[in-house]
């Protein structure tokens, strides 16, 4: 898919990371009035929209297959080149 799926997952990751940052900022700085009260509602709206998008993606039989079933891969090579180390890292 020419990296389309990877870009989609990267966007989801960035959305969740940003939502987490907003929540942490609210928790850490809400007393200082540096973070607005509406941050929590914005995060809630963003995460709910992302949840619906992921759900729709999983229902798409063609595109959600890798996410549901994972990727089948073979790690092959000569002895003692780090295949087990790579697998353990993954």
Automatic annotation (TrEMBL):
Gene3D superfamilies: tRNA modification GTPase MnmE domain 2 (1.20.120.430)
Any one GO CC term of the record: mitochondrion
Domain of life the protein comes from: Eukaryota
InterPro entries assigned: MnmE_dom2 (IPR027368), MnmE_helical (IPR025867)
MnmE helical domain ranges (all copies): 1-72
Pfam family, one: MnmE_helical
GO BP: tRNA methylation; tRNA wobble uridine modification
Name of the protein described by the UniProt record: GTPB3 GTPase
């Amino acid at each position: 898919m020419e990296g389309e799926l990877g870009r989609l997952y990267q966007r989801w990751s960035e959305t969740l990371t940003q939502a987490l940052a907003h929540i942490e900022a609210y928790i850490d700085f809400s007393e200082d009035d540096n973070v607005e009260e509406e941050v929590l509602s914005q995060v809630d709206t963003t995460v709910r929209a992302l949840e619906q998008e992921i759900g729709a993606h999983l229902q798409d039989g063609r595109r959600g297959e890798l996410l549901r079933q994972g990727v089948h891969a073979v790690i092959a090579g000569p002895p003692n080149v780090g295949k087990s180390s790579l697998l353990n890292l993954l």
